[in-house]
Design goal:
Blueprint: H1 4-48, H2 51-64, H3 71-99, H4 104-113, H5 115-128, H6 139-164, H7 173-194, H8 197-207, H9 218-237, E1 249-251, E2 256-264, E3 267-274, E4 279-284, E5 287-296, E6 303-309, H10 313-317, E7 333-337, H11 343-350, E8 354-358, H12 362-371, E9 379-381, H13 385-401, E10 412-417, H14 432-440, E11 442-454, H15 459-471, E12 474-479, E13 494-501, H16 514-517, H17 521-527, E14 534-535, H18 537-541, H19 543-547, H20 549-553, H21 564-567, H22 569-582, H23 585-588
Parallel strand pairs: 7-8, 7-10, 8-9, 10-11
Antiparallel strand pairs: 1-2, 2-3, 3-4, 4-5, 5-6, 11-13, 12-13, 12-14
Helix pairs in contact: 1-3, 1-4, 1-5, 1-6, 1-7, 1-22, 2-5, 2-6, 3-4, 3-5, 3-7, 3-9, 5-6, 7-9, 13-14, 14-15
């Protein structure tokens, strides 16, 4: 049975544990908010690349260095830093993105706008974690242990929040920051009210006379701790990036006409006309989802009419229609996963196909319809493609197992898989389990076109092709790079389209004809160059792997073993650099 001292210490231990969990949650929310704030400038991969290491160093420093302020003052300082963080991260991040690369830019910005908050929080958290049982160890060991424990708790909290926090829409970096200001300023005000006479005397001896020293001034002190950070936060919230001018508006020395801006599930979506192009584009964070050239309605008039696509990768996807298939149905069906600005989808609609579109971001579909003249598809599903495909594949398997007649007319002749954004692809849409489900809803003679942006010889391209070949009978690969066949640069980022089919019949493309061009120059140009833009499978897999199915199976991506996200880090960095050549730096700073 525990003695009196053990019983008396239990409430203190429980209080410390509760305070530790609450503070670790606040710090984790701050970390998430700081990274969300930098996504429009650097993207998710570059922003998070070295943040974990920075966090560890800061937690160790916060635990090891002496404290110069008490908990109440540290919380007040945290709330003030949280209040100014949105503007600080935006302005420093914009400057750093112009001067530095996508690795050092986020680090420099986080050192100014995020790390001081983490340092203060880690210092307080270390005090809370100083449990009596640890006092038997050397103080230096205790500090290091508490620093590592703080880092582990905060990092784990970060991961839980990224997995479960519905970012986008109402939950943005700015909304998180104002919530955190309220929480920390409330905590500081509460500590000011409940401080004991002994604590005030101790504080007075350390700091000298204070106008907050008497009990009569405690409400005033608490009010100051609470109101000053909140007032500052509300002032910051009415400035960019938390608040932008009413759309439409001109920016970047009148070279950019911003038409609409939306915070959505995949990031910050911006529709704008780049007048020096001139072209209209859709942007999600630091990645272009597509665009169209602007042309004058008549000679001598401003370029205000939508023209052809600024990217050719979408045109290559349309080449699925050119695959020679046995007994095609009268009205073929196409499934388009990932709408973007709707270049390929609109072409399929124009050709009279039955079109089904899946887009995870409602804002992307809505803005494509509004600003890029996307026609309405026959069916639209605004949800995650993995869940949609899995549900329909499971239903077909269930009917087949129960010997229930299956309507093959619902299968798709063509499936376009274009989910690249922000320098990478969603890994869960490239596993063998996903492709097996997709196979269930594809016609036996149907064709899948999978868009990927990366380098020909990287591990990600190797694994994607190996996984596709494990499901489909055969694949062919094409690129949109402006080079001759056989001279592919091994380290240069390019758009690659994998065409795969379940059929073992000869995999041939017919010659494009006038009706395939839809009166566009870009289609006439690229649809007639397929033979000159093919990439041999051995260029991606290597001659050894292409003939060795055992070795090839080791590269198959599964739900249980999916390193695609890690492999894509380098391509995400290269993609950032490519995007900065597509548009000037000052254009990217407007969001």
């Amino acid at each position: 049975m525990p003695g009196p001292s053990a019983r008396s210490s239990s409430p203190g231990v429980l209080l410390n544990l509760f305070q530790s969990i609450a503070l670790a949650t606040v710090i984790s929310l701050s970390n998430v908010a700081s990274q969300l704030a930098l996504h429009p400038l650097y993207g998710g991969t570059a922003t998070s690349l070295h943040f974990t290491i920075l966090s560890l160093l800061v937690c160790l420093a916060g635990a090891s260095l002496p404290r110069f302020v008490n908990t109440r003052s540290a919380l007040t300082l945290m709330s003030l830093l949280l209040a100014v963080a949105p503007v600080l991260l935006h302005r420093v991040g914009a400057r750093a993105s112009s001067w530095l690369d996508p690795i050092w830019g986020p680090i420099a910005t986080q050192l100014v706008g995020a790390i001081p908050i983490l340092f203060l929080g880690a210092g307080i958290l270390t005090d809370f974690l100083n449990f009596p049982i640890l006092r038997i160890f050397n103080p230096a060991i205790i500090r290091i242990f508490n620093g590592i424990l703080s880092w582990f708790a905060i990092t784990r909290g970060d991961q839980v929040l990224w997995d479960h926090l519905p970012t986008g829409g109402q939950i943005t970096s700015c909304s998180l920051y104002i919530f955190l200001v309220f929480v920390t300023s409330t905590a500081a005000a509460f500590l000011a009210l409940v401080s004991t006479p002994d604590q005030r005397k101790s504080q007075k001896r350390r700091s000298g006379p204070s106008r907050y020293g008497s009990s009569k001034s405690l409400p005033f002190a608490a009010g100051a701790h609470f109101l000053l950070p909140l007032i500052l936060s509300f002032v910051i919230q009415i400035q960019p990036p938390c608040t932008s001018p009413a759309c439409p508006y001109f920016a970047a020395n009148n070279t950019l006409h911003v038409l609409e801006r939306a915070h959505s599930v995949t990031g910050t979506i911006v529709i704008a006309d780049f007048l020096d192009g001139p072209f209209r584009f859709m942007r999600c964070d630091q990645s272009l989802l597509g665009g169209k050239w602007l042309v004058p309605r008549a000679e001598g008039l401003p370029a205000t009419e939508l023209g052809e696509s600024i990217y050719s990768a979408f045109i290559f996807q349309e080449a699925v229609r050119l695959v020679e298939r046995q007994s095609p149905r009268k009205r073929e069906r196409v499934l388009n996963i990932g709408v973007g600005v709707g270049i390929a989808l609109d072409a399929f609609i124009a050709h009279g196909l039955h079109t089904t579109a899946i887009e995870i971001d409602p804002a992307v579909y809505r803005l494509a319809r509004k600003y890029f003249a996307l026609s309405k598809p026959d069916e639209v599903y605004l949800e995650d493609a993995r869940r949609w495909v899995s549900t329909r594949a499971a239903a077909r398997r269930q009917r087949h197992g129960a010997n229930v007649a299956i309507d093959d007319d619902t299968r798709f002749d063509f499936i376009i898989h274009d989910c690249f954004s922000g320098g990478g692809v969603p890994p869960h849409l490239f596993t063998i389990e996903f492709w097996e489900d997709l196979k269930e809803i594809l016609d036996p003679t149907g064709v899948v076109a999978v868009n990927y942006a990366g380098t020909v010889h990287d591990d990600a391209a190797h694994a994607i092709l190996a996984t596709l070949l494990a499901v489909f009978a055969q694949c062919r690969i094409f690129h949109d790079h402006g080079i001759a066949q056989g001279k592919l640069p091994p380290k240069e980022l390019m758009n690659i389209v994998f065409f795969c089919t379940l059929s073992s019949a000869p995999f041939k493309f017919r010659t494009a004809k006038k009706t395939d061009y839809l009166n566009t120059v870009i289609r006439r140009h690229f649809l007639n160059q397929l033979d000159h833009r093919e990439i041999p499978i051995t260029s991606v897999l290597g001659a050894h792997y292409a003939k060795n199915t055992t070795e090839l199976s080791r590269w198959i991506i599964t739900d249980a073993n999916n390193p695609l996200g890690i492999w894509q880090r380098r391509s995400a960095i290269e993609h950032w650099k490519v995007m900065r050549t597509a548009l000037p730096h000052d254009i990217w700073n407007v969001y």
